[in-house]
């Protein structure tokens, strides 16, 4: 389909095609821009990019979601492109900024990651394009470096001050595993996440809440964390351990900063505890309470949840989930829950009923992972 779409737009076949997935984060929320730990899994929802080089410097982009209209970007500079095409242009710009000679390109994209659901459709788009260009031009860029490049495109070209988790997840996740990400070093470890083998499943429930606040509040949280790290004299909040939480310096912070710090420090510890359970002999169900504690911390200390997410989490726990939490940036998007395999529909019913009672839009089930990270198609 996509190769035909490319042909219809550009009158020739593509040279390469690359797939990059969206992600869901098991635990470790808002920790990435604090140099901390996260544990995402790739979803079986992807963006595919078909590419071919041009003889000029222009970027011609089209997408199946936008009817195949071709947008021509003659000059790839920050501030000149908006909408979905800025993620494509951002990847090209960031590769050029990194010193790579990237000629003009024809790019056609198609995707199954729902935009606006907090499942990283933007990172999937950036990473499919960046990985496609790397392959097309035989650049041989290491995956962690490619993640940094795609992340720079999102921060400096698109202008969204996100951390690096989403790009790292899209490029570095592997099938049947979660990815332990150290956002400071970009060191990653594949962590076995074979829930089916334990008769379990990770449900992903889209609350279908438009997350209007996410951009401004996300940037505000980031500023609060950076200010707290400065006040505490550490490079990033990752450099504090849980013992520091009871110490004088943290106690002296204003109450809002203190809560933000408590979330980041305790969340980093929960990621490592989760990984210890997943890699040790303990029952995998033991990660459930850590997921639920993460939600409580995001709701009360980091204040990035919302009524729909809290209602979904409560309904899932009430219906027998081992643990549940909001996932992603917050203010809407998805909740996840660790449940017995086969109980997903009845669990979703519980969320549906609670949403009806509150007058919320009906929730939807999203296919869960773990799925493979970015790869070449064909
Ligand atoms: C968004 C950002 C990520 C990360 C999460 C919260 O998804 O893009 O970098 O900060 O929020 O964990």
Bound molecules: alpha-D-galactopyranose
- Biggest beta sheet attributes: 6 strands, mixed
State the helical fraction. 25-40%
Number of strands: 13
Read across the widest sheet, the strand sequence of neighbours is 5-4-6-3-1-13
Proportion of residues in β-strands: 15-25%
Order of helices and strands: HEEEEEHEHHHEEEHHHHHEEHEE
User: Which regions have little confidence, pLDDT < 50, spanning 5+ residues?
Assistant: none
**Count of discrete domains:** 2
CATH class of the largest domain: Alpha Beta
Secondary-structure-derived class: alpha+beta
Shape: globular
Q: What is the count of helical runs?
A: 11
For the record, give the distance between the C-alpha atoms at the N and C termini, rounded to a whole number: 13 Å
And the CATH topology of the largest domain?
A: Ribosomal Protein S5, domain 2
What's the Cα radius of gyration?
A: 21 Å
Mean pLDDT: 96
């Amino acid at each position: 389909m996509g190769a035909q779409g490319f042909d219809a737009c550009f009158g020739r076949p593509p040279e390469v095609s690359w797939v990059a997935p969206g992600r869901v984060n098991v635990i470790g929320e808002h920790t990435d821009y604090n140099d901390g730990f996260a544990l995402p899994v790739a979803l079986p929802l992807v963006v595919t990019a078909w590419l071919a080089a041009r003889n000029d410097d222009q970027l011609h982009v089209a997408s199946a979601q936008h009817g195949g209209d071709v947008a021509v970007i003659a000059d790839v500079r920050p501030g000149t492109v908006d909408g979905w095409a800025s993620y494509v242009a951002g990847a090209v710009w960031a590769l050029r900024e990194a010193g790579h000679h990237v000629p003009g390109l024809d790019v056609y994209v198609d995707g199954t990651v729902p935009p606006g659901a907090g499942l990283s459709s933007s990172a999937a788009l950036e990473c499919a394009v960046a990985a496609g260009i790397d392959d097309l031009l035989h650049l041989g860029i290491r995956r962690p470096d490619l993640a940094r490049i795609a992340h720079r495109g999102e921060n400096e070209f698109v202008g969204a001050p996100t951390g690096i988790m989403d790009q790292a997840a899209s490029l570095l996740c592997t099938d049947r595993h979660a990815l332990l990400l150290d956002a400071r070093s970009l060191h990653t470890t594949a962590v076995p996440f074979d829930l089916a083998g334990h008769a379990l499943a990770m449900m992903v429930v889209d609350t279908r809440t438009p997350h209007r606040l996410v951009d401004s509040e996300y940037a505000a949280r980031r500023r609060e964390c950076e200010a707290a790290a400065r006040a505490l004299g550490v490079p990033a909040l990752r450099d504090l351990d849980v013992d520091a939480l009871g110490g004088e310096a943290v106690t002296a912070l204003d109450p809002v900063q203190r809560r933000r710090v408590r979330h980041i420090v305790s969340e980093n510890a929960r990621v490592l505890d989760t990984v210890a359970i997943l890699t040790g002999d303990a029952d995998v169900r033991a990660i459930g309470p850590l997921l639920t504690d993460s939600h409580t911390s995001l709701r009360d200390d980091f204040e990035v949840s919302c009524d729909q997410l809290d209602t979904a989490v409560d309904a899932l726990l009430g219906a027998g989930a081992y643990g549940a939490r909001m996932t992603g940036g917050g203010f809407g998007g998805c909740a996840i829950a660790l449940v017995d395999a086969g109980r997903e529909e009845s669990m979703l019913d519980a969320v549906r009923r609670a949403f009806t009672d509150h007058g919320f839009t009906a929730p939807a089930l999203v296919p869960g992972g773990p799925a493979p990270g970015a790869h070449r198609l064909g």
